[in-house]
Amino acid sequence: MTELESLSRNVEKKFKDALWERNIKQVELAEMLHTSPAQLSRALKGNTTPRDIEIQKQAAKILGIDL
C-alpha cells in the first residue's frame, strides 16, 4: 500500500468513526452539507478533487475532527 492510499484510508476511518460516535448517517451529513450522498461518499473516501477537499473540510468542522 502506498503512503497516499494509507492516508486516504486513515481519513475515511476518521470520518466513519466520527459519524458512528455521533450517531449521524452519511445521508444526514450530506443533507447538512447540501450535497449528494454519492458526492459525500467520494469525499469521505479521501478523494482529492477541490470539491471533495472542500466537503472534507466542512464535514470535519461539523463532526469536530481534525484531518
TrEMBL record:
InterPro entries: Cro/C1-type_HTH, Lambda_DNA-bd_dom_sf
GO molecular function: DNA binding
Any coiled-coil regions, as ranges: none
Domain HTH cro/C1-type: 21-67
Pfam (any one): HTH_3
PROSITE patterns: HTH_CROC1 (PS50943)
CDD domains: HTH_XRE
Protein name: HTH cro/C1-type domain-containing protein
The species this protein was found in: Fructobacillus ficulneus
